[in-house]
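Reminder to self: tokens first, then the designed residues, so the page reads top to bottom the way the pipeline ran.
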């Protein structure tokens, strides 16, 4: 069956699906990752977006349900050039997994041409439907974080160190990495008060990744401001942007974001380079860090944007990339060890 992806600038692209698709809209973004597609599709940070894969064949090994990054595929829609059928009989096929959750999968589409268009025009709203129909120009809603955050306090694992996560859409591998390091992990809903978290006697608190525009999360940024100096903080992706906002910095939307498993960053303190996993559409405006107490610690080697910050007074730092990987390289996983050292555990 033939379907269309229509972008908000009026351009359109044809594809196909072997199953009927529901009409959906979302922000059209792309990733250069050549593996880990189930992890990308289940990453809560993709809530509200239509993801285009740059790597041509997707679906090769099915869906490894035991290694997902969320409870379900959070993506709004998926676009691939070639949909592959896994020869492994025991695994769940990608198309069936997405169909179960009513997530449209469009294949046989010119992904290369589409991505080159997005690289020139920037991120656009898109609509997948059975006709050429321009999507609305509405921005993504500010309810995205509340959609993907836990609804109650949840604990994981056993350990000598009590680590909290303020959940804006946390990836499961962040929890796994902490449990591997002998941590007891407590997840807090995104709107939990600072007082309630401090009563939990945490050794440290991670500000998690998540979807959407960080500037809309004013209450969450204010909560982080109240936590500064009272508990060690480690921001990851959206959590880092919110750390900057809580200190008086500002963020801006990137033309087409950083999404992939091969993003190069430079540690400005050591001069060491890392290949990192990234998934974000916003960045900290470096000029606004003056007077906030924050300094830039990592920088993207492609466009020079800020990829990490650290507070000069309080025990708080963050990185824009994903040290938990999944998908992607493990170069930056040492940051979890660095955080545990900063908590004194």
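Designed residues (345 positions):
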């Amino acid at each position: 069956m033939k379907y269309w992806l229509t972008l908000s600038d009026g351009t359109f692209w044809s594809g196909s699906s072997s199953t009927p698709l529901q009409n959906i809209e979302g922000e059209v973004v792309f990733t250069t990752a050549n593996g880990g597609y189930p992890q990308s599709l289940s990453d809560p940070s993709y809530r509200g977006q239509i993801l285009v894969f740059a790597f041509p064949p997707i679906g090769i090994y099915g869906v490894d349900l035991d290694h997902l990054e969320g409870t379900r595929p959070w993506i709004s829609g998926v676009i691939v050039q070639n949909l592959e059928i896994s020869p492994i009989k025991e695994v769940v096929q990608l198309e069936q997994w997405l169909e179960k959750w009513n997530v449209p999968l469009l294949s046989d589409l010119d992904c290369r041409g589409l991505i080159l268009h997005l690289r020139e025009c920037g991120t656009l709203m898109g609509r997948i439907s059975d006709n050429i129909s321009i999507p609305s120009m509405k921005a993504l809603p500010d309810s995205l974080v509340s959609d993907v955050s836990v609804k109650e306090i949840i604990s994981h694992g056993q350990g000598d160190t009590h680590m909290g996560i303020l959940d804006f859409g946390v990836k499961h591998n962040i929890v796994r990495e902490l449990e591997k390091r002998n941590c007891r992990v407590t997840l807090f809903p995104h709107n939990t008060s600072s007082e309630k978290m401090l009563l939990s006697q945490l050794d440290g608190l991670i500000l998690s990744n998540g979807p959407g525009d960080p500037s809309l999360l004013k209450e969450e940024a204010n909560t982080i401001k109240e936590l500064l100096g009272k508990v060690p903080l480690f921001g990851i992706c959206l959590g880092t942007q919110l750390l900057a906002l809580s200190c008086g910095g500002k963020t801006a939307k990137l033309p087409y974001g950083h999404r992939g498993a091969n993003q190069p960053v430079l540690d400005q303190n050591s001069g060491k380079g890392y290949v990192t996993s990234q998934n974000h559409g916003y960045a900290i405006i470096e000029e606004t860090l003056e007077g906030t107490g924050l300094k830039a610690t990592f920088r993207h080697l492609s466009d020079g944007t800020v990829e990490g910050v650290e507070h000069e007074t309080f025990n708080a730092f963050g990185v824009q990339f994903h040290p938990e990987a999944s998908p992607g390289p493990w170069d930056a996983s040492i940051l979890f060890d660095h955080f545990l050292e900063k908590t004194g555990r």
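The chain has nine helices and 19 strands.
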